[in-house]
Design goal:
481 residues; alpha/beta; 14 helices
Length: 481
């Protein structure tokens, strides 16, 4: 997912030049060393003499590679140039690469992604002064209808990740947005994303965590699970040792405990057996559960991912559980997603095949063939990769063998088009499978469609939670019928 780098007010004048304010085009904070090969053009010409303002320091752009600080997702990186600009509009181009320290491209380096954006900007546009609805203001006055009853050990939650575009826009502090999820009546249990939440990430201060816990409680809610991050890379060339990986995670565990969460979440398999062994004493001491999140095509039957399930089972400790994301159980692809592929230049015959025969193995082969032929247009390349990574083809029955290890669920959705029960059916079927197992945990609404949809996250999440509650109740009740 990529987000806007140049906002309307990105270009401002100084007494002897100009400043360019860059927004981070990523979903969580990144270390400053992640920024590589940063260059700027103005009206078609390269800008020389650029420096980067970091607090009261000014450094050459090349020095970012050795900086130890972080680029908080709601902050903007300020570049300064000693070249005065004429008033009016200027075409600004920015190019750079971002190394993503928690994603690996190969054995020797993190994943590095190129970014290039160009747009016309007016000099000295005032910051957006739109009216901001305060946290606590209800979204609507709609009447509250009776809700289907769930098992008392099943807790519905909303993920703060659903509000990612709002966080990136930075019209309000991320903590205010998170508290607003509860105060606005969307949900009273919230899953947190520290990489979007606190400027001190990954070493959140006790004061920050305590204040948020108190604010959530005052609004009538609490935190459930914290989405931890494990940055395997300390620089573009230095991989963290096992001790370094543990040291990177421990402050996040302590923050999760202080904010009142019951657990933390990591991508399945990233920690590995050795680190999980070292984490167990800390999890017991802090009273936290670590959830290994499986999603998309990470099924128990996949030879590539079988070790994840085997490791959790072999540990035999309730402090390490699985979190199942129902993106594994997609009977059909989201209509809104297919529309984006078609508009982005994916051949119509393949889009039709994806629509009508998503679960056919031959469709998967066709997806891979187009990718290997370099036939995927660059503008939709990242979106297209969802077909290989984030979208699964399994049924709930395929998960029966691992359900006793499941401690939490992500009710992933992309849009609310429930044609042929494509949204509600996986929820209903998973509830039917979970009900006999004694499952006790959170079932969290997580919206992935904001990658391509510009809808209101509060309305989308509220509507999805209502649909999910009904589907969960129906699925669990069918076991007793």
């Amino acid at each position: 997912m990529t987000l806007a780098t140049l906002r309307d007010d990105a270009l401002t004048s100084t007494t002897d030049g100009f400043r360019l304010h860059l927004s981070l085009p990523w979903i969580r904070s990144l270390p400053l060393w992640s920024v590589r090969d940063l260059g700027v053009t103005l009206d078609g010409s390269p800008v020389d003499g650029l420096t980067c303002a970091l607090g009261d320091r000014s450094i050459p752009l090349s020095a970012l590679a050795t900086e130890q600080g972080w680029w908080f997702v709601q902050d903007r990186l300020t570049l300064e140039a000693p070249a005065p600009l004429a008033p009016g509009s200027h075409v600004v181009g920015v190019s750079f690469s971002l190394a993503v320290p928690y994603l690996q491209a190969g054995p020797d380096a993190p994943l590095t992604l190129p970014f290039r954006v160009e747009r016309a900007l007016e000099l000295d546009v005032a910051p957006d002064q739109r009216s901001i609805r305060p946290a606590g203001a209800k979204t609507t006055d709609r009447p509250v209808s009776p809700q289907p009853r769930l098992d008392p050990d099943w807790t519905l939650a909303a993920s703060a990740f659903n509000w990612t575009p709002d966080v990136i826009r930075a019209d309000r502090p991320a903590t205010d947005i998170t508290v607003g999820i509860i105060a606005d009546g969307v949900a009273d249990v919230v899953e947190l994303e520290p990489g979007q939440l606190w400027p001190s990430f990954p070493a959140t201060t006790d004061a920050e965590a305590d204040v948020l816990r108190e604010r959530l409680a005052a609004a009538g809610g609490r935190a459930s699970i914290v989405g931890a991050s494990l940055d395997d890379w300390a620089s573009p060339t230095q991989r963290r040792s096992e001790t370094g990986r543990l040291d990177f995670l421990l402050p996040q565990l302590h923050a999760a405990r202080r904010v009142g969460a019951e657990g933390v979440r990591l991508p399945a398999g990233q920690a590995g057996p050795a680190l999980l062994d070292r984490l167990l004493p800390h999890l017991h001491e802090l009273g936290l559960t670590l959830y290994e999140e499986v999603q998309g095509q990470q099924t128990p039957s996949s030879r590539q991912h079988a070790a994840v399930y085997e490791t959790v089972a072999a540990l035999g400790d309730a402090r390490i559980r699985l979190l199942v994301d129902i993106s594994m159980l997609m009977p059909a692809l989201p209509v809104s997603y297919l529309e984006q592929l078609l508009a982005g230049g994916i051949p119509s015959d393949l889009v039709t095949r994806l629509r009508d025969d998503w679960r056919d193995p031959a469709t998967h082969d066709a997806v891979v063939a187009l990718l290997r032929s370099d036939g995927v247009p660059p503008g939709v390349h990242t979106l297209y990769m969802n077909l290989l990574v984030r979208f699964g083809r399994s049924d709930a029955a395929d998960l029966r063998g691992i359900l006793p290890l499941v401690g939490a669920v992500h009710l992933k959705f992309w849009d609310l088009d429930d044609t042929d029960d494509r949204v509600s059916r996986p929820i209903r079927e998973l509830a039917r499978a979970l009900a006999p197992t004694g499952f006790s945990g959170t079932l969290c609404s997580e919206w992935g469609g904001h990658e391509w949809l510009d809808d209101d996250p509060a309305q989308m999440t509220s509507a999805h939670l209502a649909l999910a509650r009904s589907a969960l109740a129906q699925g669990a009740a069918s076991v007793l019928a």
